[in-house]
Write a structure and sequence with these properties.
InterPro entries: AAA+_ATPase, ABC_transporter-like_ATP-bd, ABC_transporter-like_CS, Aspartic_peptidase_AS, Metal_Ion_Import_ABC, P-loop_NTPase. The protein has 278 residues and is an alpha/beta fold. Helices cover 30% and strands 23% of the residues. The protein has 9 helices and 10 strands. α3 packs across α4. The structure holds adenosine-5'-triphosphate (ATP).
Length: 278
């Protein structure tokens, strides 16, 4: 389904993500119903669709945070059940901002993104510190590194979380509504940050209601409706015939989002386990 020509290369790397008639949900409730999709390295995919269409459930499925209820899910060519290389996927959860109860500096929060990469008994090394500084620079927060995260605006906190995900050096960055609740000026800053990441070759899967902010960086658009994919193509094709999906999809956050975000913000593993997510 990818339009990338990397497809044709005889020894091409496997797709970052491959869904073959995959279903995800909660308990026995199927939310994402037999979706087939693949994302290749270099692609920046925007995942669109009305509230409740299953976007978050799909990305959570890739992270083991919603249940895999059918079909096949491959991550970097490995079936998800056997996939152990979690740091290859960075995740920025859906949320407004960091919990006010997190008492830590910007640098400390970003540094937690490195924890999954080394055994608990090994202290942080120089490479950890440099990677953290580089991640802070990538999101334009190097000059705020020593500040308390609680002192930052919502948009800046979002960038802290992106930096935390980047600190693990992921091959794929998954973001759930990175611009939700962020004012227009900060949305532009975020879009610039993402454009910078694209320039350095980061592949992204971005759930969003605000496609405008990402119009210049997105290479592909996937639209969901009621658990199915009903558009998958390039932004030009989307613009000519599929704008209607965005209309009338007013956004709301459930009370659970805040709790989940608070937990995700403080856990040391960049991919919270299912238990932590409840
Ligand atoms: N933890 C959960 N347990 C049970 N059902 C859930 C859970 N999370 C989401 N759902 C249900 O799954 C359906 C799809 O929700 P999902 O969050 O995937 O949609 P979405 O497309 O991301 O919507 P939004 O744009 O509002 O974030 C909804 O009906 C929702 O109630």
């Amino acid at each position: 389904m990818s339009m990338s020509s990397a497809h044709d290369t005889a020894h091409a790397a496997p797709p970052l993500v491959e869904l073959r008639s995959a279903s995800f949900g909660y308990g026995d409730r199927v939310v994402v119903d037999r979706v087939s999709l693949e994302q290749r390295a270099g692609e920046v995919v925007a995942l669109l669709g009305p509230n409740g269409s299953g976007k978050s459930t799909l990305v959570k499925g890739l992270l083991g945070l919603s249940e895999h209820l059918g079909g096949e899910v491959l991550l970097f060519g490995t079936p998800i059940e056997r996939f152990r290389d979690k740091p290859r996927i960075g995740y920025v959860p859906q949320r407004h901002s960091l919990s006010q109860t997190v008492r830590a500096t910007v640098r400390e929060v970003v540094a937690t993104g490195r924890l999954a990469l080394r055994p608990w008994w090994r202290p942080a090394a120089a490479v950890d510190a440099t990677t953290v500084e580089r991640a802070l620079e990538a999101v334009g927060l190097a000059d705020r590194a020593g500040e308390d995260v609680a002192a930052l605006s919502g948009g800046q906190q979002r960038r802290v979380l992106i930096a935390r995900a980047l600190a693990a050096g992921p091959d794929l960055l998954i973001m759930d509504e990175p611009t939700a609740g962020v004012d227009a000026a900060n949305q532009r800053v975020l879009a610039d940050v993402l454009a910078g990441l694209v320039d350095t070759g980061t592949s992204m899967l971005v759930v969003t209601h605000e496609l405008d902010a990402f119009r210049d960086v997105v290479t592909r658009i996937v639209c969901m409706d009621r658990g199915h994919v009903d558009f998958d193509g390039d932004p030009a094709a989307y613009a000519t015939g599929h704008r209607s999906h965005e209309r009338g999809s007013g956004h709301h956050h459930s009370p659970d989002d805040t709790r989940e975000a608070g937990l995700a913000a403080v856990v040391s593993d960049p991919l919270p386990t299912r238990e932590e997510n409840r």
